[in-house]
Design a protein that fits this description.
alpha+beta; Aminopeptidase
C-alpha cells in the first residue's frame, strides 16, 4: 500500500496532533511530544518547515502550537484526511530558522 502522505525530504512535511486518552491531556505531554518530534524531524529529515493544520474549533492543539512558537498562517476549509469531514482548520508553520532559535530541546 502506498503511503498517502509521503515525506518530502529537504522541503516541508505535515504533522498531526492527538492525545486520545483523556487522562493524558493537560499534563504537558502534547507539548513534550511535539518538541521531541520536531527536533527529530528537522535533524533527520532535513526539513525546511513543518506544517500542522488542527481543527479550528479544537482549542488544545491550537494552543499547543501557538505556545511552542508555530506561526499562524491562515484559516481555511478542507478535508484534512480520509477519516475526516470537511472542516475549518488553522494552518501553523514552524521553519527551521524559527526552530534554531529555540536552543537545545
Amino acid at each position: 500500500m502506498q503511503n498517502p502522505t509521503p515525506i518530502n525530504y529537504d522541503a516541508q512535511d505535515c504533522i498531526h496532533l492527538h492525545l486520545r486518552q483523556s487522562d493524558h491531556r493537560q499534563k504537558g505531554l502534547g507539548s513534550m511530544m511535539v518538541l521531541k518530534s520536531v527536533k527529530h524531524f528537522f535533524k533527520h529529515l532535513k526539513l525546511k518547515r513543518i506544517i500542522c493544520e488542527p481543527y479550528a474549533l479544537n482549542p488544545a492543539p491550537n494552543k499547543t502550537l501557538q505556545k511552542l512558537g508555530f506561526s499562524f498562517e491562515k484559516k481555511h476549509r478542507c478535508i484534512p484526511g480520509t477519516l475526516n469531514f470537511e472542516q475549518e482548520v488553522n494552518r501553523y508553520c514552524l521553519t527551521r530558522s524559527q526552530f534554531d532559535t529555540w536552543g537545545e530541546v
